[in-house]
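Recap for those who missed Tuesday's class. We walked through two folding examples back to back. For each one, the amino acid string is listed first and its predicted structure tokens come directly after. Nothing is annotated here on purpose, so try labeling regions yourself before you check the end of the notes.
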Amino acid sequence: MACSAFFFVPVWSSRYWIRNRKRRKEDRGAYETGETPVKMYGRLLSLASSSLAEKEFKQDSSDFWEEPYWQASAWKPCADRKILTSLGKPDNSNGFLLVSANGGLNQQRVAVCNAVAVASLLNATLVIPKFLYSNVWKDPSQFSDIYQEDYFINLLKDDIDIVKALPPHLKSLDIEEIGSLVTDSEIVKEAKPNDYVKTVLPILLRNGVVHFLGFGNRLGFDPVPFKLQRLRCKCNFHALKFVPKIQQMGSLLIKRIRKYDLRGTLDSQLLGKFISNSSHSKMNGIESGPSKYLALHLRFEIDMVSYSQCDFGGGETERRELQAYRENHFPLLIERLKKNPGIVSPKELRKLGKCPLTPEEAALVLAGSGFKRGTYIYLAGSHIYGGKSRLLPFTSLYPNLITKEDLLTPSELSPFRNFSSQMAALDFIACATSDAFAMTDSGSQLSSLVSGFRTYYGKGQAPTLRPNKKRLTTILMENKTIGWTAFEERIRKMIDEGQRPRLRGYGRSIYRQPRCPECMCKSQ
């Protein structure tokens, strides 16, 4: 990710890039070694480069460092408030609820809060959830490695009972043999509360214990009683605190990104006692950070890219590579594609807005939104498909691209290195506390949870950019003819419309869109 000599690179960051250049090259895995830059929109890139050069020393031209609508500040966090009419939890529990959650950090976070809601629904005692080991994530981390157990238990004690382990008389039971193992195949995706009452409650009452295995997206968002929705919000936004190890490193990471002190509700909620009012951090005696930074979650990893079945301009070599990855990692997808002769073409998928944004497309969106060339951009995750060559169109417009690997030393990162969920937690902190956050895929759990956190705790001062991929494709299809002024106008209108404060729609994620009476309170 080293930058060419003509790039504007401040002294503080260049030392970190130089130090990390060799390490990043060694860390590059398969599918990240391409050398020839892939450009799908060469003309627009040229126009963007000229525009950014003209604006470099002018007043900041982007309005998206601030929330554009005052209505965003009218909603305040209140999921942790006690409801006076609530009767509280029943005196006697119907049994114990075990959950083994699959996925990565963010999928497991959602599963934990859904489990809290289901435990309340079934009047069950929740055992601290287990996290399944995945061959994809390769992370053995458990709940207590990521979240503060005692804090979680105590904050929710008025709502449900939570214990750290089953009582001795139940530990010896063969859960599967007695019929208490419930897998994802036995509960429909986005299940309704009544589904649990009809199918799971009888098992719980009969055996005293139920074990959910997988539990991926197994509780829908509507219709769900007010009490359970509020409990989900209380869990996600209040009860799940990162352990001190993660908070401390997250605090160091943020202080190295920006000049000013850690501040505000977002910082305090995510960093706890490690929020500091001391003078800003220095690296090797050099003053750190810009005055503000934008965080970008660029969902362009090999799994996402290959699964999408889209074309990303890399020609036959790219197509063969992605097909080989699909065959090795997504056999069910390959089987489904063989059975379905009416496969949608890559071109149609792109028109429908189904393709992940490339780094090139993300850079064009930022340029069209008015962000200047010198903008500091924190990149969440770093395993971009195509590696350095795929990132070159981005860094040609925005050279100040940084990651946690740039800002933290190898020894500082060492305790997290083999734990992908703990590394993802650092990205979560850097994205949630940024001055502006840009997502490229609305279906990403990280982007969804981060944008929800910013809505909940941001006080209307934590803007999130949400490109509409279908509309963006329509704009980019005019690459050969559209003028830069027209491109900017259409991009800004698209981003502006995505920032309008909206109430959570029916069936929409309460974790991503907490602006609703169950989660937040609106000031008059």
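Example two. Treat it independently of the first, because the proteins are unrelated.
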Amino acid sequence: MAKHPFSFLHFLLCCCFFSTLLSPSLSSVEVEALLRFKKQLKDPLHRLDSWKVSNSPCEFFGVSCDPITGLVTKISLDNQSLSGEISPSISELQSLISLVLPTNLLSGHLPAELNKCINLRELNVSVNNLIGTLPDLSELRNLQILDLASNYFSGPFPSWVTNLTGLVSLSLGDNNYDEGEIPESIGNLKNLSFIFFARSQLRGEIPESFFEITTMESLDFSTNNISGNFPKSIAKLHKLYIIELFANQLTGEIPPELANLTLLQEIDISRNYLYGKLPEGLGQLKNLKVFHIFENNFSGEIPAGFGDMRNLLRFSTYRNNLSGEFPANFGRFSPLKSIDISENQFSGGFPKYLCESGKLLFLLALGNKFSGEFPGSCSKCRDLRRLRIKENLLSGEIPSGIWGLPEVVIIDFGNNEFTGRIPPQIGTATSLTELHLENNKFSGKIPPELGKLANLGKLYLNGNDFSGKIPSELGVLQQLSSLHLEENSLTGLIPAELGKCAMLVVMNIARNSLNGNIPESFSLLTNLHSLNLSWNTLTGSLNPDNLKNLKLSSLDLSMNQLTGIVSSNLLQMGGDKAFLGNKGLCVEKCLKIQMHSGLKVCRGNNTKEELLLFFIILGSYFSWLLGCNLPGM
């Protein structure tokens, strides 16, 4: 027994001795192979500068070696901005167990010679620009991780992967394969825990053998043409924590057995043809973080258990037929970041605990039947980016804290029955790009503080009862592209400062009680496509110079008190209807004939022919008078 330690030590010394004998020749072979690999690459970041003959390959950047033999075992060059092609010389690295080259700009074909790297356990060339049909790599029986995703591979879907029975992780998605099916033999991969086949042009049903892979933890077959009923057998995969089946052609109902997958954290089955009620058991999935079922045909109510969830982050059910009252405690106990329940039939009071954690970024509930007041608790959402609750039956005043949310980009309260005023706090919402308040019962003056919103691109205040003057401060909004103030009770002059809103594409301030002239500054609005000033009491001469630089596709100045001549340019932009109801407007006779205009002809603006005829008649008359007064006549 005492001899054993010395025997083992002797063995190690022998191994080291022979490895030193073998290393120089093997090392030179590997150096040469690696330098040929480098030669086919462009390296703008100079990451491969250490790859040179004078260095050991173990000193090359991104290269690892076996500590005993000194042979290359790993190459890891993730996200190094490398371009060029993968050299077949890589196959000469017989001890290579890991080749990791993702997130570069590599192009060309994947070398078939990689099949010689029989010790390879990990091959990752994802997120590159590789092309062509995938070579058969089924000789790589030691592979555990194969990631070829997000390239431009074409040809048949690589069914040979089902021979790689040691695979734990398989990513083939996001490529340009021919249309095909998931191989029936996929069930051979008994050790698989991660599969990514998204965007792979797959059709047909998921093979039943797939649901025998009980080690499966994450599946992604999204954005394909997979059909058939939602697979009931998925309930066999008890280790599943991610299901991504969105954007397919699945039909049928969600089986109640899905609720048995208690480890589930993410479910996305959106954009299918699924229907029926949501199983009550889904509300008991306590680990659930993401629940997306949007753009299906689900009906009924949200299971009450969703109100008690502790981990829910993202919840999206938009464009279904879900109805009833929302779970009372929804969001109360979970760190909710986004919710989109738009375009359903939800009714009752608006859920009041959505901002309880203060982490909500997106709140979208447009197109439902929520009624009552909007909860003041939503003022807690200090990081809220998008707030859209248009087209409901909500009423009362908006809580004051909502108006000044510092990070909000879109506020959309349109098409409800809200009342009250826009408070000065709106000026602190400096991230705002869109403000939609149209078709409510808001009143009072439009606050000049809106001029502080330098990022504001769309302002919809139409269909309310705003009064007073249009604030001249709106003229500083250099990003403003849409201005809708129509159908209010605004008075006074149109501020000339609006002509400074160089990005304006649409301006509609119709159906108010505005007076005065059309500002000359409007000639500066060269991006304007649509202008509607109708149904006001605008006066003054219609000066063509004010609008001569505009290239409008829509113009309406009707039902005002404008005077003057309508130019051919304006008549082409708006037609007769754009000028109706202005008794002082007219067109020249030649233009009336030429453009078949129904507008009246201008008096005192005769054509040259009419003036010539007038002078001829006048001359004849004087000649007759002169003849009558001659002696003897």
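Answers for example two:
Residues 1-6, 11-23, 605-611 have pLDDT under 50 and may be disordered.
The two ends are 166 Å apart (CA to CA).
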